Amino acid sequence: MSPLAGFDGITDARLRVREIPFLRQTVIRADPGRLGPQWPVEPGTWLRSGEADVLWLGPDEWLAIGDPGLTPSPEMAVTDVSALRTTLLVAGPGARDLLAHGCALDLHPSVFGPGRCAQTMLARANVVLVAREDDEFWVLVRASFARYLADWITDAAVDY
Fold first, then answer.
1. Of the candidates 127, 129, 118, 119, which has an alpha carbon nearest to the alpha carbon of residue 96?
2. How far is CA 2 from CA 33, 53, 83, 86, 88, in A?
3. Cβ contacts of residue 57 below 8 Å, gap of 6+?
């Protein structure tokens, strides 16, 4: 059962919110030189690499959403963290304003546009925020905070 089972989401002209449950998520710790050129090396960015979206989380840490296509070696640590988080899709013309309401990051498109990601706080919940398209974001939230964050988003969406 997903952490947000029964969450109806939001669908209107300015905002769409829904859970994307059960995405495969893998943390990879390794020397960047061992991972190949299709992996992000710039802080706060993500790239599509094969069958996965790969997010830069730290100088030697990435989060792959999907199949990273890696064969683990003694020089790297590969950990499946799929059960740790669920993903909320927040999209539409009101998405940026809604997220900015509870997040200290500058979410202006010139600063946090497609291809950017960050570990941050949203409404006091630790999340990974991923800018997918102009007005489309993924919010990766720990399963234990998912219901709280969905309720906060539902409440805050009234204003947007």
1. 129
2. 36, 21, 9, 8, 12
3. 27, 63, 119, 128
Supply the pTM of this predicted model. 0.94
- pLDDT recorded at residue 68: 87
What stretches in the chain show pLDDT beneath 70? 160
Instruction: Encode pLDDT of 136-158 as tens digits.
Output: 999 999 999 999 999 999 999 98
pLDDT for residue 83: 95
Burial call 95-118: b when 16+ CB within 10 Å, e when fewer? bbebbbebbebebeeeebeeebbb
